[in-house]
Write a structure and sequence with these properties.
15 helices, 2 domains, alpha+beta, about 10% strand
């Protein structure tokens, strides 16, 4: 099949060849612009909470420039002459200089874009769009990338490049370039897919199987990213539980207990109802009234010992396990504070306490 350049109509080749020769002459000067805008984008993140994994940049290669400049539009009328999609590629192409910002998680893509767009003294954002190769709406999978089209403002390095363009070009210091922001997994997928799909000119080697496998790997990576995002949010929530001056000070209302429990122990949630009032009463009986105190109580090691000591025949639900953990921690005090005149509950608690004492070896 050949490249676009190889298939280009003979009448259009001289114009593309002339533009390519001019780009070949200018590219070394343009590389200085690439380095400058990369450094300026990287500097935006200095001291910011968000730290990208890396920021890289590239100046489009001469071969890639010629290939993109060779794109054509369908004739306006059947049988008409084709025309170039980019008749003035040095002016029309906005990806001659490209910067990539690679982050860890999907939510950081948005944060990075917002930080860059706020640097209005250096850049003017001309466009901001999601580029999805696959989407929820279409029911397909692929990589997702945030694309910003930025224009420099009175940049001295750009003025030097514009001076090399010739007398007919004003040296304004304004230059349009592209910034791509994506996650590390999306970046890896797109790089591998691009190497296999687009760098192989002979499309006869392609098959539906390869499309299917790329789609499958994109789906797997999306699932992995979702899991990493969920883990990140859960970790932030748990960290907040231990902040005694922040989230950790939130009172233990029933709804709050449910939230803390389901965050710390999502695997122990076999409640027949959504009433956490009894749990609030049990905790209040011991003066446990804040989120941090509940997080401290629900220690994973203690829970493991409790379950081993009691050897539950059935996996306990939240109410029963909370009761057992309080019994493990407070012993006889828990029985006296919560059994009251309920003889059946008192007997059950005393039986379980003896099992715990035997396990501990202090019976």
């Amino acid at each position: 099949m050949g490249t676009l350049w190889e298939r280009l109509d003979d009448g259009l080749r001289p114009g593309v060849e002339a533009s390519t020769d001019e780009y070949r002459r200018l590219r070394p000067v343009l590389e200085a612009v690439t380095v400058d805008v990369r450094d300026r984008i990287q500097e935006i993140f200095a001291g910011a909470d968000l730290q990208p994994l890396f920021v890289s940049a590239r100046t489009k290669s001469v071969d890639s420039f010629r290939e993109k400049a060779s794109r054509t539009l369908e004739p306006a009328v059947p049988g008409g002459e084709p025309s170039l999609e980019f008749p003035h590629p040095l002016r029309d192409l906005h990806d001659l200089v490209g910067v990539r910002v690679i982050v860890s998680l999907p939510h950081e893509v948005r944060e990075a874009a917002n930080l860059i767009k706020r640097r209005r003294n250096e850049f003017d954002c001309r466009a901001d769009r999601e580029k999805d190769i696959g989407s929820v709406e279409s029911g397909t999978y692929g990589y997702s990338s945030r694309h910003l089209i930025l224009r420099t403002r009175q940049n001295d390095v750009v003025k030097h490049y514009q001076g090399a363009l010739g007398e007919n070009v004003r040296s304004t210091g304004n230059y349009i370039f592209e910034v791509q922001i994506r996650t590390i997994l999306a970046h890896a997928w797109s790089e591998i897919e691009h190497d296999i799909r687009f760098k192989n000119v002979d499309q006869r080697a392609w098959s539906p199987y390869l499309d299917r496998q790329f789609t499958a790997t994109a789906a797997m990576l999306e699932a992995v990213e979702s899991t990493f995002s969920e883990l990140h949010e859960r970790y932030r929530a748990v960290t907040g539980f231990w902040d005694e001056d922040g989230d950790g000070a939130v009172p233990l209302e029933p709804e709050r207990i449910r939230h803390v429990w389901q965050t710390l122990l999502p695997h122990v949630d076999r409640k027949t109802d959504d009433d956490w009032g009894w749990a609030a009463e049990l905790l209040a009986a011991h003066g446990l009234t804040t989120t941090t105190e509940l997080a401290r109580l629900l220690d994973a090691e203690a829970i493991t010992k409790v379950r081993t000591a009691l050897d539950h025949r059935y996996s306990p639900g939240p109410d029963r396990l909370l009761d057992d953990v309080l019994l493990w921690r407070f012993g006889e005090g828990h029985i006296e504070l919560t059994a009251g005149s309920d003889r059946q509950r008192r007997d059950s608690l005393q039986r379980r306490l003896r099992q715990m004492q035997a396990f501990r070896g202090d019976a």
